[in-house]
């Protein structure tokens, strides 16, 4: 009896994590450049797509799910903040178009000093092929202490990126927000 319990536990552990997660946590600084691929198995419109940039005016870049915008593989991560090493430097911020219906706020890239999107970096296993991957998760809005998830939502026929605090109790059926996992895809093998 004990033996079958032990082997059942071992078996389910293997199923839950097929790849081997390194014991040492990854750095919140990733020199890059890298592209950002989305995983959202329950939402095919974003799953496997990439985070693209769209020159929006005033030097800002808005962020859209591919194929909208320009494919971008020059992102870096600086202290958890998605960064474009341009002149001037553009950083991902969470500070626009707050929407009470689903409690979401837009993430976009700017040179200005809006509250940054500060991500944690974790290792994960690719749900499709079990390969080890780096994921950007649980973004915090600036230094607010409020952690959220990153998701995507319809915007003028495309999908843009919106932050939603964890524990949010509202949703908008007319404009459904879907959580996505952001995966670092190095442009050169790491
Ligand atoms: C894509 O990049 C080109 C070249 O920099 C630029 O002219 C164009 O405005 C960009 N398009 C979008 C949607 O950002
Ligand atoms: C919206 O997010 C804030 C945190 O920024 C949280 O305090 C609030 O309860 C959330 N509202 C709803 C309706 O979920």
TrEMBL record:
Sequence ranges assigned to domain DUF7909 in this UniProt record: 21-185
Signal peptide interval: 1-16
User: tRNA processing among the record's keywords?
Assistant: no
Q: Which residues cross the membrane?
A: none
Query: Keyword Transmembrane helix, does the record have it?
Result: no
Q: Which UniProt keywords apply?
A: Signal
* Name of the protein this chain belongs to: DUF7909 domain-containing protein
